[in-house]
Automatic annotation (TrEMBL):
Protein name (Swiss-Prot/TrEMBL): EIF3G factor
N-terminal signal peptide: none
Top-level division of the source organism's lineage: Eukaryota
Database matches in CDD domains: eIF3G
Region Disordered: start-end pairs: 1-22, 146-165
Domain Eukaryotic translation initiation factor 3 subunit G N-terminal, first and last residues per copy: 23-137
Composition-biased stretches (Pro residues): 8-17
Length: 165
């Protein structure tokens, strides 16, 4: 708040310097000024000091050195060089329906249901070299093939047709 109070006649000479008084969270600034018509006026401004918490990123930015026209300004924004603009609202060109249509046309989605890689040991959907059962199932398949009198190569070809001699 600001109050302007006309002063009783002050002695001629320089006006008193501004005074700043802080009492708790109330800051009072007292200034003296001479009006155009020759009256001397006392201006009392009262401010309430508020402490606001900011994020760490904002606190770091506040400590940056000012540059350009604001290089020698005091901390905080300067109304001569800083403007606060209106909120900007974004308008999206594509809608959610368009995005859903694009997902259906994606060729990778068609392949998701199919098995691309097949393990020769356990028939799982991973590479044979990365089979978690290769140490246990691999030797068992070899033993079974030897018991039946087939080599591993002949075992794979037998169900599909006759093996070459």
């Amino acid at each position: 708040t600001s109050d302007t109070v006309p002063l009783s006649p002050l002695p001629a000479g320089p006006l008193p310097s501004p005074k700043e008084l802080i009492n708790g969270n109330i800051k009072t600034i007292t200034e003296y000024r001479e009006e155009e018509d020759g009256r001397k006026v006392k201006i009392i401004r009262t401010f309430r000091i508020e402490t606001r918490k900011a994020s760490k990123a904002v606190a770091r930015r506040k400590n940056w050195k000012k540059f350009g026209n604001s290089e020698f300004d005091a901390p905080g924004p300067n109304v001569a060089t800083t403007t606060v603009s209106d909120d900007v609202f974004m308008t999206f060109i594509t809608s959610k329906e368009d995005l859903n249509c694009q997902e259906e046309e994606d060729p990778m989605n068609k392949l998701k249901g199919q098995k691309i890689v097949s393990c020769r040991i356990c028939k799982g959907d991973h590479w044979t070299t990365r089979c978690p059962y290769k140490d246990t199932l691999g030797p068992m398949q070899k033993e079974l093939a030897e018991q039946l009198g087939l080599s591993t190569g002949e075992k794979e070809k037998l169900p599909g047709g006759t093996a070459p001699l």
